[in-house]
Specification:
It contains 5 helices and 7 strands. By secondary structure, the protein is α/β, with parallel strands linked by helices. The chain has 2 domains: 34 residues; 122 residues, Glutaredoxin. The protein has a 7-stranded mixed beta sheet. A hairpin with a 4-residue loop joins β6 and β7.
Length: 170
Amino acid sequence: MDQAVKRLVPLAIVVLVVITLLELAALAVLHQQTAAYAVGDLFPVPSGYSLDHHYLPAVTRPCYLMRVTADACPYCSMDQQQYTRVVGEAREAGCGLYLLAPRVGQAKLRPDGPATQLQYVEMSLGRALTSLVTPQTLLLDRRGLLQWQHQGALRDTDVAAAMRALGARR
């Protein structure tokens, strides 16, 4: 009996390692397939009421960078360096820059910031945002077609992907 157990232990370990690797592969595939948006999804051009209660109509721009964020979101401040790099490139491309909070009152007015802060958006844009995860960053072309998106804090690889999407637009 002791010999049989000694032979089965290495086999059991190999089987467990293979099962774990298969689970990780399945999780990676599911993660890619469950993205909230797909490149080419159509969004309305951002418009609505700003945090200071002024109506801001849709303005035609070469592109639009939207960020769903909230002041109390810890992940939203983790990636400020990366987000600032994307904003700089988007400004150079002439993009409209917009900050949206998931709910009214979750963002304070920052009049000196580079982006337009919207607290109420047109209903069609609200419906297009299927997830209000914060932070969430989306790049749209002039027609509102999604060119790039990321949910969660940006990493350097995400910034590189955003830069490629912005560069492809020029």
